[in-house]
């Protein structure tokens, strides 16, 4: 009733998050009576799609498992009466993934400084997917933002996945040879793409290293061109952007213990600006081999970067001179108890 009374001009569609079906059944029952031309479209997560499956099969379907990320709509079976109403009245269901939900949470925060819960951002993600798929332009669409019951701890995951959901970040893995200068060559092949995360650990038992990294601010063609450059240089590259296991767990477990001779562990503060990484590599590589590199951009003025470099004792003064000439803040961490405990 509020939508019909307050919205000026024609409405193409109303997008509603769907759990058990009560909210969308009520909206559809009223709107279809007073404005039957308005489309009523439900939105569900891929892993909690009880209504979509029930409508497809013509009867209520009970899910074996339900994804809990959008916990406000995480139901195994829709209501009997709500299913009957939805079957008669609604115009369809849009399914969206977790990354798209996170992207919509971020969009709402940046636009209105409001923080939605995943179920509250569901309709917004569905509306965007629908408009993009059908090329909708110049139409009024409404998304019901149904809740803001956000768990603060969950915000960390939302920030990790939001840029992936908007295709502003891609997660990749590349094999490169374990030899001096290979990291610098790799960065040159990345070219204008902005590296937002990089994880690598030296392993003397292998001829090739597998590095896990993310690149940001890309278009599909830019990303494909970068991957092609890697393959042309014989650096096998795998796109892992849609792999939830990598994004949730494996990106944090990459590397691990490795006993490397002459390894010097340093923490550098890189300025968050283009060319900062290449300036670092020009100063130190290929003079010394890099054995560990961990970086995650956080949108701050300076980025903390953990670096392992193979520096013999006799070369220490030369290394310090070059490190000081960079003008970056840094600290030697080889004697840190945590490094000795976890990485050796």
Measure the end-to-end span.
64 Å
SS field, number of helical segments = 13
Residue stretches low in confidence (pLDDT < 50, at least 5 long) are: none
CA-based gyration radius: 25 Å
Give the strand tally. 12
Largest sheet: 8 strands, antiparallel
- Can you tell me the overall shape? elongated
Quickly give the structural class.
alpha+beta
Mean pLDDT comes to: 87
Write the element-wise H/E pattern from the N-terminal end onward.
HEHEHHEHHEHEHEEHEHEHEEHEH
> What portion of the residues fall into strands of 2 or more residues?
15-25%
Residue share in helices? 25-40%
Strand order of the largest sheet: 8-5-7-6-10-11-9-12
Main location: plastid
Pathway: Amino-acid biosynthesis; L-isoleucine biosynthesis; 2-oxobutanoate from L-threonine: step 1/1
GO molecular function: threonine deaminase activity
Enzyme class: lyase
Layout of strands and helices, then pairs:
Layout lengths: L1 H5 L6 E5 L4 H13 L4 E7 L4 H8 L22 H10 L2 E5 L1 H15 L5 H17 L6 E3 L11 H11 L3 E9 L4 H9 L3 E8 L6 E9 L3 H13 L4 E3 L4 H10 L9 E9 L4 H9 L5 E7 L5 E9 L5 H11 L2 E4 L4 H6 L2
Parallel strand pairs: 1-2, 1-4, 2-3
Antiparallel strand pairs: 5-7, 5-8, 6-7, 6-10, 9-11, 9-12, 10-11
Tell me what the structure shows.
- InterPro entries: ACT-like_dom_sf (IPR045865), Ser/Thr_Dehydratase (IPR050147), TD_ACT-like (IPR001721), TD_ACT-like_sf (IPR038110), Thr_deHydtase_biosynth (IPR005787), TrpB-like_PALP (IPR001926), TrpB-like_PALP_sf (IPR036052).
- Its EC number is 4.3.1.19.
- There is one protein chain.
- The chain has 13 helices and twelve strands.
- By secondary structure, it is of the alpha+beta class.
- Strands 8-5-7-6-10-11-9-12 form an eight-stranded antiparallel sheet. Strands 3-2-1-4 form a four-stranded parallel sheet, sandwiched between helices.
- α2 (22-34) runs parallel beside α4 (80-89), α8 (182-190) packs antiparallel against α11 and α11 (276-284) runs antiparallel to α12.
- The termini are far apart.
């Amino acid at each position: 009733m509020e939508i019909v009374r307050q919205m000026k001009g024609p409405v193409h569609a109303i997008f509603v998050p769907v759990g058990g079906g009560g909210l969308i059944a009520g909206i559809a029952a009223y709107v279809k009576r007073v404005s039957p031309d308005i489309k009523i479209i439900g939105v569900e997560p891929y892993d909690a799609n009880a209504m979509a499956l029930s409508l497809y099969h013509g009867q209520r379907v009970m899910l074996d498992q339900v994804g809990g990320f959008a916990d406000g709509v995480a139901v195994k079976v829709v209501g009997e009466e709500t299913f009957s109403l939805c079957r008669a009245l609604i115009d369809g269901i849009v399914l969206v993934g977790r990354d798209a939900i996170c992207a919509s949470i971020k969009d709402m925060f940046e636009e209105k400084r409001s923080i939605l819960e995943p179920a509250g951002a569901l309709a917004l993600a569905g509306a965007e997917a629908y408009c993009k798929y059908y090329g909708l332009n110049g139409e009024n669409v409404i998304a019901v933002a149904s809740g803001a019951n956000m768990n603060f701890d969950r915000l960390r995951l939302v920030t990790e996945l939001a840029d992936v959901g908007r295709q502003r970040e891609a997660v990749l893995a590349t094999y490169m040879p374990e030899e001096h200068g290979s990291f610098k060559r790799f960065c040159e092949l990345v070219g204008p793409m902005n590296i937002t995360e990089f994880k690598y650990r030296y392993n003397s038992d292998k001829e090739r290293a597998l590095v896990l990294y993310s690149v940001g601010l890309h278009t599909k063609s830019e990303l494909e061109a970068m991957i092609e450059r890697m393959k042309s240089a014989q650096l096998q590259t795998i796109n892992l952007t849609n792999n939830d296991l990598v994004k949730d767990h494996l990106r944090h477990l990459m590397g691990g213990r490795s006993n490397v001779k002459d390894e010097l562990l340093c923490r550098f503060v890189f300025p968050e600006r283009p060319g900062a990484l290449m300036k670092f590599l020009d100063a130190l590589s290929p003079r010394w081999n890099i054995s560990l590199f961990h970086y995650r951009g956080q949108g701050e003025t300076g980025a903390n970067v953990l670096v392992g470099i193979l520096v013999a004792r006799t070369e220490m003064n030369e290394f310090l001179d070059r490190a000081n000439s960079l003008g970056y803040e840094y600290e030697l961490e080889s004697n840190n108890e945590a490094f000795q405990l976890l990485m050796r």
